[in-house]
Automatic annotation (TrEMBL):
Stored Gene3D superfamilies: Leucine-rich Repeat Variant
Protein name: Uncharacterized protein
Native species: Natronococcus amylolyticus DSM 10524
InterPro entries (alphabetical): ARM-like, ARM-type_fold
One Pfam family named in its UniProt record: HEAT_2
Length: 337
């Protein structure tokens, strides 16, 4: 492709001295050669001086809409770099960018467009919320493109219920060999499970549970966090995994311990007996160095009706340095009284 590789000396000189009005005029030119030269100028300079080229966004968008334009890959790359620099300036073009991606899902340019949309969604998730079905189709056509999954993950932060059409894609992302898209997929599934959406299937839970035995610490931690979100509304779906989740209470990673404790606590809200196998470990975690671990252990012990924890919980309620721990310890004491 013409936009791969490093810059020549001529290209470096061109990007160091920018005549923006000339570039804008070139992007509007009627002859293809002039437009291509203007696109190359933007492409060559956008990585080092992206702020300079933000005014080119509307014109680049229009060039992208021309199926016969030869440098669509360079245009998409430039828009992706500009979205990283100024997502709010690219956000008004989101509808058009999604449309181009949907029409051309298999091209290299669409890969860059998904990167562009991910940057926009990170700043302005609502700009993509109405395009979830198209984003799902494009991401599926690209075999679960990581940038597509990341775009959906950003959208789920503000509109989790809108992600219901992505359920099949996200489930398949976890079912296949997990890659870099698995962690954002877990984030989406967790938010979707906690939302008011009526999930058509909980088949993904089986694949989340399978990740509890993986060697990747980040993936395992996020899998437990996803199960905690599922347990918020559907604790019975997570109960079969409690023995594996309980083992994670021994993790060296405090976030993993905290996620495991909150998961046990949420399942215990429906079935207090799940606490008994990990009762001793939860009691130890009341003295954990990390406040979130202590706080979540309090909740689990309270919901598990562990009467022997009352004394330690009373001590925490009165004297823990963290307000969140004191509040949860006091709540747990109330449950045990």
């Amino acid at each position: 492709m013409d936009w791969d590789g490093g810059q020549t000396v001529e290209q470096q000189q061109r990007s160091e001295s920018v005549d923006l009005p000339l570039v804008l005029a070139g992007l509007d030119a009627t002859d293809s050669t002039t437009r291509q030269e203007a696109v190359r100028t933007v492409r060559d300079g956008v990585e080092s001086k992206p702020g300079t080229y933000v005014p080119t966004v509307p014109k680049l968008r229009e060039l992208l809409r021309e199926p016969a334009f030869e440098l669509r890959g360079a245009v998409a790359f430039s828009l992706a770099e500009l979205a990283v620099e100024a997502p709010s300036d690219v956000a008004p073009s989101a509808d058009a960018l999604v449309a181009v991606a949907a029409e051309n899902p298999d091209t290299a340019a669409t890969g860059e467009l998904l990167r562009c949309l991910a940057a926009v969604a990170a700043e302005r998730p609502t700009a993509l919320a109405d395009h979830v079905p198209e984003l799902v189709d494009v991401t599926e056509a690209r075999d679960g493109d990581e940038w597509g999954i990341r775009t959906l993950a950003h959208v789920s932060q503000s509109r989790p219920e809108a992600l219901e059409p992505a359920l099949g894609l996200l489930t398949e992302t976890l079912a296949s060999a997990p890659d870099d898209g698995a962690v954002p997929a877990l984030s989406v599934l967790g938010r979707l499970a906690r939302s008011e959406a009526e999930l058509s299937s909980l088949a993904f839970v089986e694949h989340v549970i399978a990740l509890l035995d993986c060697d990747d610490g980040e993936l395992r931690r996020n899998a437990i966090g996803c199960l905690a979100d599922v347990a918020h509304r559907r604790p019975e779906a997570v109960e079969p995994a409690c023995s594996q989740v309980g083992a994670a209470l021994e993790s060296d990673d405090p976030k993993t311990r905290a996620n495991a404790a909150v998961t046990i606590g949420r399942v215990a809200a429906a079935d207090p007996s799940v606490v008994e196998p990990v009762r001793a470990r939860l009691l130890e975690l009341l003295e954990d160095d990390h406040q979130y671990v202590r706080a979540n252990a309090c909740i689990a012990l309270g919901r598990g009706d562990v009467a022997e924890a009352r004394g330690r919980l009373s001590t925490l309620a009165a004297g823990d340095p963290e307000p969140s721990v004191r509040d949860r310890a006091a709540w747990a004491c109330g449950e045990l009284s």
